[in-house]
Specification:
Blueprint: H1 3-17, H2 23-34, H3 40-46, H4 48-58, H5 60-75, H6 83-94, H7 96-104, H8 106-110, H9 116-136, H10 148-158, H11 168-178, H12 183-212, H13 215-246, H14 250-267
Helix pairs in contact: 1-2, 1-13, 3-12, 4-12, 4-13, 5-6, 6-10, 9-11, 9-14, 10-11, 11-12, 12-13
């Protein structure tokens, strides 16, 4: 991989990580169309650290409040003492499905699951699910009004993101809509819910890559990928929240279905 390819893939990662269109699918499709080698699941996971930094910066007040509440509840030996501490620990538990399934099916996710057939099918099916969720489930709840069980449901939906093409943000927004959240709040919650999973998978894959010996060029490529993912990711957060306050997810649904059809055609 050249530094130019790493930079482009970083931009793609940041632009598509938070939009419900699947960053993993685009990091597989873009190299395919440009004649580049597949960057692999490890590189894709590591440059997510750039989008993680974007979320931490954009939602720094929310993140600080949740961390402070969680630590205070530990000190007081009462994990459920405040709404913020309950939300923080519910988010932590809500990441168990994606962590357990991610480790259990690691080899399949990094190899066979990256086939264009699976990606194309997942793009279409999750798009239809997202459309159905917005069409038949409407509400006005925010994150503080969710029950522990409802957050675990969204966590299960998030685990669908392990299938390339599903989209972590798309699956969690779908889950949020199904438990009665409005579009913008479901998107905001998907960012916060994804923090532990993104951090864990990014550091895990970074360690794995470091053990193989990255070299100077490898470190440069990862650095560029993370940097450009951070820049484009921050902009995509702002765009998605503004967009969903005024419009629905139909545009993303149509895009997913059309892209999925193209991918399936390429796979033939």
């Amino acid at each position: 991989m050249t530094w130019f390819e790493a930079s482009i893939l970083g931009l793609v990662q940041g632009l598509t990580e938070f939009l419900p269109i699947s960053s993993t699918a685009h990091l597989r499709i873009v190299p395919e169309l440009l004649g580049w080698e597949d960057p692999g699941a490890a590189f894709s996971a590591v440059i997510q650290l750039g989008t993680l930094l974007a979320v931490l910066l954009y939602f720094r007040k929310d993140v600080l409040e949740l961390i402070t509440a969680a630590l205070r509840s530990l000190w007081n030996r009462n994990l459920m003492e405040t709404p913020s501490s309950r939300l923080a620990w519910a988010i932590a538990v809500g990441n168990l499905p994606i962590i357990v399934l991610g480790l259990g099916f690691k080899d399949f996710i990094e190899t066979d699951a990256r086939s264009l057939w699976i990606i194309g099918g997942a793009l279409i099916l999750l798009g239809l699910g997202l459309y159905a969720a917005e069409r038949f489930a409407s509400g006005s709840r925010d994150a503080s009004q969710l029950s522990f069980r409802q957050i675990q449901w969204i966590g299960l939906c998030q685990a669908l993101a392990l299938i390339p093409g599903c989209s972590r943000s798309g699956s969690t927004i779908m889950g949020g809509l199904l438990v009665g959240m409005n579009r913008a709040e479901a998107a905001r919650f998907s960012f916060l819910l994804g923090l532990p999973a993104i951090l864990g998978s990014g550091l895990f894959q970074l360690k794995a890559l470091a053990e193989t010996g990255l070299g100077e060029s490898g470190l440069l490529n990862i650095g560029l990928g993370v940097f450009f993912a951070f820049l484009s990711g921050y902009l995509s957060i702002e765009f998605l929240l503004r967009f969903l306050r005024h419009y629905g997810t139909l545009l993303f649904v149509i895009y997913r279905i059309l892209l999925g059809a193209v991918v399936l055609f390429l796979a033939v």
